[in-house]
Design a protein that fits this description.
Blueprint (H helix, E strand, L loop, with lengths): L2 E3 L1 H8 L3 H8 L3 H8 L8 H11 L3 H4 E3 L3 H6 L7
Antiparallel strand pairs: 1-2
């Protein structure tokens, strides 16, 4: 999956446990695990907002698009000057 979830990185930076994070965001620890492990199919904006508020970060700190092999092969080549 080309979207990588970096919740674990932000939690580690803040020395915050998954349990504390889940409670403050209003999620179950199991749902945080689904997000952290990249098994979520969608994230509500209200949940993303709550995660950013609790962690004091931007959405881009939590989510990153990483091209897979197919995306890389289809990417336009830079024009040579």
């Amino acid at each position: 999956m080309p979207i990588v979830v970096r919740i674990d990185v932000e939690l580690a930076r803040r020395k915050m446990s998954v349990g504390e994070f889940a409670e403050r965001v209003g999620l179950t620890p199991a749902n945080v695990a689904v997000l952290k492990n990249g098994r979520a199919k969608a994230v509500r904006f209200s949940t993303l907002e709550a995660m950013c508020r609790v962690l004091g970060c931007q959405p881009g700190d939590l989510l990153e698009w990483v091209p897979d092999e197919q995306d890389a092969a289809q990417a336009p080549q830079e024009a040579h000057r």
